[in-house]
């Protein structure tokens, strides 16, 4: 299932080196794979401080990141933030013993931070730019007491620069590498968030998704990723692709950690009007209350059977069949052999037509709001890339997607037709299938295309590893606001299977 690319500098030796580097003292072993709840318990029992935790992750980044390239830069103030968290915990400041307080988190490099770090979407064109304020989700994380550890690498411009560039490549950091198999696709654009979390270079992370950019790297790096309903989390201060589809979500090693992160970042932000409507979906008491062992009991799950074919890979098909059996054993009712109508939209270029125009409008608006920037428009970005042909891989990969977007002229008749077709596909295909069959969720290996166009939520849970050790996952997706149900399903499945293992 992995998409392979050639990485000439990699060989068996770095894999051995990664193994040697990852074997450290006893404290390291207790931190590696630790959940948010584990870390909070260690804080409470005075077995660990936030300073020690941050130093551990900074050391792992120093050792592993030259090979994995999951992190673009670390926060020079991370230890200062850790000391502040430790002082607050010692003083028993309200909220200092729960949630994400004192927990390091890595942000995808298209999520703005008003600090000493850059926000560049992986591009040199935005290096040195200054944002007006923290992104909405970052402000919420700071209020929750989280430590902003650094910025994760990504497919440059959230994979909207070049159709020729492989997943995980950006100018600033080069190739992001799947820690389970160096030749496997890390997927993305939120590849660095997935790589870093999977490899224990950070506790939890944030990614963004327009179409697959949280779910796919989570699928391919054996982590849990939640793609929230559009508007459930603020996109203010996030370098955009299209506000119609963009969303910010957790990328973690467990469903419980993802729920803790979602609790911290979901909610109203008047800088993003979509949150006003979507905030009605947030349950009183938050999302962690839906971490139920019996969360699959009575759930009606629709199986998109054609997505599980895997011709030539019977072992994968067999694994998924075993998971279907587990779902039934945990009390779920499976409605099999379902298909989403209007699948022709998936092979059409409607999404590209609409997104190109929306990207130009949204990016120009974002760039114009910057306090300082080398570029102020998409046209400037393209010109910057043309002036810097010596930058790694610029000539080879080009910037065809940027050029296509620049050639648009707002939302015209062609774009309106594309948008109408995308909405029709969502309503008469995906949504109708769920409502007519009274489903709690649809199930597929990777469901991102089905849920992208109209802002539906989805979650990935690790499901196994192929013969080459490359991870694969299983996706559950529902209607807008169905995150509580999806968390119940995902947590119950995760606890019944416990598939995830660290890469080394």
Automatic annotation (TrEMBL):
<dbReference type="Pfam" id="PF01425">
    <property type="entry name" value="Amidase"/>
</dbReference>
<keyword id="KW-0732">Signal</keyword>
<dbReference type="InterPro" id="IPR023631">
    <property type="entry name" value="Amidase_dom"/>
</dbReference>
<feature type="signal peptide">
    <location>
        <begin position="1"/>
        <end position="26"/>
    </location>
</feature>
<protein>
    <recommendedName>
        <fullName>Amidase domain-containing protein</fullName>
    </recommendedName>
</protein>
<dbReference type="InterPro" id="IPR036928">
    <property type="entry name" value="AS_sf"/>
</dbReference>
<feature type="domain" description="Amidase">
    <location>
        <begin position="53"/>
        <end position="446"/>
    </location>
</feature>
């Amino acid at each position: 299932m992995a998409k392979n690319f050639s990485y000439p500098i990699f060989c068996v030796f770095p894999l051995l080196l990664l193994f040697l580097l990852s074997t450290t003292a006893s404290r390291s072993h207790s931190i590696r794979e630790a959940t948010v709840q584990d870390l909070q318990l260690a804080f409470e029992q005075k077995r660990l401080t936030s300073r020690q935790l941050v130093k551990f992750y900074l050391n792992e980044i120093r050792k592993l990141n030259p090979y994995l390239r999951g992190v673009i830069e670390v926060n020079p103030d991370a230890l200062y933030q850790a000391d502040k968290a430790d002082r607050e915990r010692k003083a028993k400041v309200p909220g200092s013993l729960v949630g994400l307080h004192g927990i390091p988190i890595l942000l995808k490099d298209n999520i703005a931070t008003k600090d000493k770090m850059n926000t560049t979407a992986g591009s040199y064109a935005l290096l040195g730019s200054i944002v007006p304020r923290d992104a909405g989700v970052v402000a919420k994380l700071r209020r929750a007491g989280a430590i902003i550890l650094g910025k994760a690498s990504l497919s440059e411009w959230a994979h909207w620069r070049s159709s020729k560039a492989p997943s995980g490549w950006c100018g600033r950091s080069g190739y992001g590498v799947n820690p389970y198999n160096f030749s496997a696709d890390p997927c993305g654009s939120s590849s660095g968030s997935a790589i870093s979390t999977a490899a224990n270079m950070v506790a939890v992370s944030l990614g963004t998704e327009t179409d697959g950019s949280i779910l796919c790297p989570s699928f391919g790096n054996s982590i849990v990723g939640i793609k929230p309903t559009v508007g459930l989390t603020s996109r203010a201060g996030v370098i955009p692709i299209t506000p119609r589809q963009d969303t910010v979500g957790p990328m973690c090693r467990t469903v419980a950690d993802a729920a803790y992160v979602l609790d911290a970042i979901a909610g109203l932000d008047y800088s993003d009007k979509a949150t006003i409507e979507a905030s009605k979906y947030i349950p009183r008491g938050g999302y962690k209350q839906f971490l139920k062992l019996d969360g699959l009991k009575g759930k009606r799950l629709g199986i998109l059977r054609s997505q599980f074919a895997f011709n030539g890979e019977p072992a994968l098909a067999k694994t998924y069949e075993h998971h279907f059996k587990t779902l039934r054993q945990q009390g779920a009712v499976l409605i099999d052999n379902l298909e989403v109508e209007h699948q022709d939209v998936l092979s059409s270029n409607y999404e590209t037509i609409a997104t190109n125009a929306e990207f130009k409008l949204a990016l120009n608006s974002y760039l114009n709001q910057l306090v300082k920037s080398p570029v102020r428009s998409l046209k400037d970005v393209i010109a910057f890339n043309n002036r810097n042909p010596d930058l790694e891989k610029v000539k080879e990969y080009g910037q065809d997607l940027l050029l296509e977007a620049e050639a648009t002229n707002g939302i015209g008749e062609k774009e309106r037709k594309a948008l109408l077709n995308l909405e029709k596909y969502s309503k008469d295909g995906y949504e109708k299938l769920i409502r007519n069959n009274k489903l709690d969720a649809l199930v597929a290996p990777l469901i991102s295309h089905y849920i992208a166009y109209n802002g539906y939520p989805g979650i990935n849970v690790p499901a196994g590893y192929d013969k080459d050790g490359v991870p694969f996952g299983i996706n559950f997706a529902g209607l807008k606001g169905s995150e509580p149900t999806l968390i119940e399903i995902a947590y119950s499945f995760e606890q019944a299977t416990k598939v995830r293992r660290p890469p080394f």
